[in-house]
Design a protein that fits this description.
Triger factor/SurA peptide-binding fold; flat; 331 residues; alpha+beta; disordered N terminus; 13 helices; Chitinase A, domain 3; 50% helix; 6 strands; 11% strand
Length: 331
C-alpha cells in the first residue's frame, strides 16, 4: 500500500470515526415529518455495521501506535509532517487538494494525525530497512525520465458561462481593474473564485487542452482573450513560468530513497501492528464488538474495509478537481 493510499484510507477512517463519536449521547439525529430519529437508535444501527467494527479497530490501532511512540521516545515534528504532506499534495492537480478534503469533511488536523502515524511507523521500522547507494543509482538509471521536472506555470483565471460575459470581464481587466476583485464578482469556479481566481502552479496535461494551450504559451502577466472549454469561457493570466529541469542522481536521491524504503517497509507494517495488538491488554466493554480483537487485524489493517470509502491514490485527477475548474485533461 503506497503512502498516498495509506493516507487516504486513514483519512476515511478518521472521518467515519469522528462522525460516530459525534453521535454519542442522547438527543435526536433527525426528524422525518416531525417523527424523531434518536441518537441512541442511530448508534445501535451503526454499531452493527462492518464499518463500526473497522473504526473501533482503527481507534485501538491509533492508541497502540501512540503508546509505542511514547514508550520508545519516538517524536514526530511539525516540519516532518508538513514535508510529508507536501509530497502527497504533488499527486493532486492544482487546487484539488483542498477541495478533496472539503468534500470529505476533513480538516488539516485530520491529515496531520494520519501522517503522524505514518511517520511513527517509518521510524519504528527504520532499523529493518536498508537502502544502498547502488540500489538508488540502479533505480535512477531505470526511471530517469520520471524525475525530470517539466515546465510549469502559475496562473489564475475567471470562468464565466458565455462569450459576451467573458468579453466584458476581459475589458474590465484590461482597463485596470483588480483581477482578484473581478474574479470574486464574476467567476463561477467555486474552487478559485474566493481566492481571486488563483489556480496555483501546474504542469502540462493537468488542465483541459484548450486551457493548457493558452496557459503554456501566453506571455507572463498578459490578459488572455476568452478561452472556450467544456466548463464555459476562461480569462487567463499567467503569473509566472517555471522552466523544466532535467533530474540528476543527487536531486532524485531523496525521492528514490523514500520510494525504496516504502517498498521494503510495506510488508513489515502488518506484522508490526499485529504484534502490538497481541501484546496489548485490550478489553472490549460493548458486547456488540465481543471477540473483535481475539484474531489479528485483517490484511492492511483498517484499510481492508475502509478503502472503499477513501479516494484512491490512483484515481483520475479529474475526479479530484472542483466542479467548474479547468479540470485536468483525460487525454
Amino acid at each position: 500500500m503506497s503512502k498516498v493510499q495509506r493516507l487516504t484510507v486513514g483519512l476515511a477512517a478518521l472521518l467515519f470515526g469522528t462522525s460516530l463519536a459525534a453521535c454519542s449521547g442522547g438527543g435526536t439525529v433527525a426528524t422525518v415529518n416531525g417523527q424523531p430519529i434518536s441518537e441512541s437508535a442511530f448508534n445501535i444501527k451503526l454499531e452493527g455495521t462492518p464499518m463500526a467494527r473497522t473504526v473501533l479497530q482503527q481507534m485501538v490501532q491509533d492508541a497502540l501506535i501512540d503508546q509505542y511512540a511514547k514508550n520508545n521516545n519516538i517524536t514526530v515534528t511539525d516540519a516532518e509532517i508538513s514535508a510529508r504532506e507536501d509530497q502527497i499534495k504533488q499527486n493532486f492537480p492544482a487546487g484539488s487538494w483542498d477541495e478533496m478534503l472539503k468534500s470529505r469533511g476533513l480538516s488539516e488536523d485530520d491529515v496531520h494525525a494520519a501522517l503522524r502515524e505514518q511517520l511513527i511507523l517509518d521510524k519504528a521500522l527504520g532499523s529493518q530497512v536498508k537502502v544502498a547507494p547502488a540500489q538508488i543509482k540502479d533505480y535512477f538509471d531505470k526511471n530517469r525520465a520520471t524525475f525530470d521536472k517539466p515546465e510549469q506555470v502559475t496562473a489564475r483565471h475567471i470562468l464565466v458561462p458565455n462569450l459576451a460575459e467573458a468579453q466584458k470581464v476581459e475589458q474590465l481587466l484590461k482597463s485596470g481593474q483588480s483581477f482578484a476583485d473581478v474574479a470574486k464578482q464574476y467567476s463561477t469556479d467555486p474552487g478559485s473564485k474566493d481566492k481571486g481566481g488563483e489556480l496555483g502552479t501546474f504542469k502540462k496535461g493537468q488542465m483541459v487542452p484548450a486551457f493548457d494551450k493558452v496557459a503554456f504559451s501566453a506571455p507572463v502577466n498578459a490578459i488572455s482573450a476568452p478561452v472556450k472549454s467544456p466548463f464555459g469561457y476562461h480569462i487567463i493570466q499567467v503569473e509566472a513560468r517555471i522552466p523544466g529541469q532535467a533530474a540528476t542522481l543527487a536531486s532524485a536521491t531523496p525521492q528514490i530513497t523514500d520510494t525504496l524504503r516504502q517498498q521494503q517497509e510495506a510488508p513489515l507494517i502488518q506484522p508490526f501492528l499485529q504484534g502490538l495488538q497481541q501484546k496489548a491488554d485490550i478489553k472490549v466493554n460493548n458486547p456488540t464488538f465481543a471477540g473483535l480483537f481475539a484474531t489479528p487485524m485483517p490484511p492492511g489493517g483498517m484499510g481492508a474495509a475502509a478503502g472503499s470509502a477513501a479516494p484512491s491514490a490512483a484515481a483520475s485527477p479529474a475526479a479530484s478537481a472542483p466542479a467548474g475548474s479547468p479540470a485536468p485533461s483525460s487525454t
